[in-house]
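The data layer described in this paper is built around a simple, fixed record for each protein. We quote a single record here, exactly as it is kept in our systems:
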Amino acid sequence: MTAKIGAITIGQSPRVDVLPDIMDILGEVEIVERGALDGLNFEDIQKFAPSDGDYVLVTRLKDGRSVQIAEKHILERMQLQINELASQGVDGILLLCTGEFPGFTCHKPLLYPQRLLQHFVAGAALDQTVGVLTPDARQVPQAARRWLENGQKTVFVEPANPYGNHEQIVKASMALKQQGAKLLVMDCIGYTRKMKAAVAEATGLPVVLPRTVAARAVAELFG
């Protein structure tokens, strides 16, 4: 029987930039998408912009624009989407974001890409210096803290928006290599497999991509 998997973005669905890129890994599953910002117009979403001290998230809207939002504004909306998907009989739910979130209530398996990513890197990096790409400069301090708390002894972070100039992603990756990074983490669901290939070719370093790490976890559980 084909598994039915819910996929929740912190932006707007459908995420045509994410799921088609990983369907070959996900395999024969039915995907039901939802977004925390579904049903809102751009003016409504602007009210969710982060203030000083907020946990900053960067996401994509249905029209392709990227926006910054404060996590606190979407937690309730995400829980409502989780509840709706669970009530529709999904076998599991995948969050399409690598941000840190509190534990949501869900009676189905709920996969957090940030947790999957951190455990994977902890097992693969050993004592190597880790370089992290994050979408926005405002996220650099929170990303550095999170990865140091994950057990990495030395971490460097550079901003590079996956929804912007792709040349900046390679440039930021080279900066991380020059700082001494031995393994690179593209810490956002928005980074694509094509971007990963470009970074790996330019730097010659191993590169970890969260969307494929998450997709392989889904395939392992439900494939």
The helical segments are 19-26, 42-46, 75-87, 113-125, 140-149, 166-178, 193-203, 210-222. Residues 75-87 form the longest helix (13 residues). The two ends are 10 Å apart (CA to CA). Strands lie at 3-9, 29-35, 56-60, 66-70, 92-96, 110-111, 130-134, 155-159, 183-186, 207-208.
